[in-house]
Amino acid sequence: MRLYFVRHGIAEDLTSSDFMRELTPRGERRVKTSAAVMRALGIQPQRIYSSPRLRARQTADIIAQALGMGVELADSVNFGFDLADARRLSADCDAEIMFVGHNPDMSEIVSELTGAAVSMKKGGLARVDAFAAEAGAGELVWLVAPKVFDALADNKQTGIVPAPAQKLPDVNGGLHELIRQRWSPVGFDRERPIKRETLLGILEAARWAASSSNLQPWRFIVARREDEAQFAKLLLTLREGNIAWAQHAAALMVACSRKFRKETVPNRHAGHDLGLAVGQMVLQALSQGVYVHQMGGFFPEKARQLYAIPDDFDPYTCIAFGYRATELGHLAEAQRGRDASPRERQPLDEMVFGGGWAQAANFLD
Ligand SMILES: Cc1cc2nc3c(=O)[nH]c(=O)nc-3n(C[C@H](O)[C@H](O)[C@H](O)COP(=O)(O)O)c2cc1C
Question: Which of 79, 80, 246, 354 is buried deepest, with most CB atoms within 10 A?
Fold first, then answer.
């Protein structure tokens, strides 16, 4: 039997509840890198048991996602996890099991199993091969610190191209966390679909946008990756450069807007209102961990023809939705560097005017 013991990643300091302490962004990033390496190493437990504490659950979820499996929460893997618990949880399994929990339990259990003096780092992993979860019955085969995972991920021989870290901009003044965190990645996770309820929430966010005279001119054609024929159809509308990465998204969309208020009266706000609805979608999506990348690079007339879009509507953009990939090995070389490029913006005084055009507003000084 092969037993993997993982200590949760770096978590935020204790605030009000120890139970709800979350991984820090750095902790999450590191666990993602470790999980990508675990996948490359072929680690494939039959089950992953996690402590119910949030930081352990988040760690287990990231690993499980990378390995394409689920997590079972087990109270016994919480504080106080011991060899008897490990024995009970592994009793009906003769292959591989992973436990994700806390110190000192994780270090103590590995020490007890193997007779070695083991100290596990946050986000570290120990592999113990044992005929049973009994004291002294195991052999310590690996003890991997997160730093080692990082180095392995950087090693070209593993074939792993870790996704770059979150791109947080330098901002003036306070910015809502969702706006600060939003950006348009090309590295989407091919394996992780967007749950129906999450997708409905994203669309609902668009539905409740403001619009001129409440005309709600927007219409959305949506294809989920799991609906293969529909997804392939929507991909046909994209330009080549966008297909290269958008083919890995979890869902694609053509965003349209109606050009007229009445039969012959143009709606000057059709594009504005669609953009506002999409803006709401983008933030609602990110609140659920789903990233959005909008595309002007598509063939509107092809979309019109494929979907029989009526003349009074225009397709404005295509949009890709998905979770970020932990590693970018599936992307073409030309795409890989894009998610690491710095984010740039014009300064406020070049876009916010006061007394006249191009005269920076006086409150900006
Ligand atoms: C209307 C619109 C069209 C866009 N078209 C494309 C596109 O065809 N391909 C692409 O890779 N990115 C496209 N983008 C993404 C922009 O390049 C991106 O938003 C911009 O560089 C700012 O980067 P950020 O979103 O990461 O902050 C588009 C964005 C918008 C809003």
Answer: 246
